[in-house]
Write a structure and sequence with these properties.
By secondary structure, the protein is of the alpha/beta class. The protein is built from eleven helices and eight strands. The chain has a six-stranded parallel β-sheet, sandwiched between helices. A two-stranded antiparallel ribbon has the order 4-5. Strand 4 and strand 5 form a beta hairpin. It starts with a helix and ends in a 10-residue tail after the last helix.
Amino acid sequence: MKHNPMAQFADRLRSVLIVDDHPLYAEALRAAILEMCPGCEGRVVESMARAVEVLEASPPDLVLYDLRLPDAEGLEGFRRIRAAAGAVPILVVSAVAGQGTIDELIAAGAAGFMPKEESADTLRDALRAVAEGRTFASHPASERDRQERAEEEREEARDLMAGLTPQQMRILAMIRHGKANKQIAYEMSLAEASVKAHITALLRRLGVQNRTQAALLARRAGDGADAPPDA
């Protein structure tokens, strides 16, 4: 039988701690992990202090860690989480970092580094490397590459959103600002069932599975998607 480290790791992975203070990204990362590792419990905390509490009380099988937190940044913060995590592997998933920082993170005990801009496929590769006991490092793209990729993603998001009706666009803007269905229904003078129907239709049109993914796509599109919902 062919050795499949990813499948074996998915079987073993029962809990993941995501340390990130950006709710939309953290939830998207959590959803991606749960899709790759069914049955796994994903927990999100937004600060170093809370992460240390969780690690001391109930260590997870894996930590996904952002370098920029309200109460700890950079290598100093990583060393603190590394000390609290014990033998638990830590995959740093953060915004752009220079090669020198990545090298220092690996030297300080990181299981790997992945820029936030990377795809789900790269995350899968990172998990596979951890499963095999290897160190994973996705090297940062050049500024020009990042700008070109961001522009391509922005245009793709705008093309998808172009097919939405004005009502769906307004609902999407409200979702982007964290408003619940009941609040959207009240502000638009619609029945809550109508709001749910609009959301189902816009999710289908955008090719996403949930509100979080829709909000991330709207954020990626920028401009009108970032306007206040009552504008």
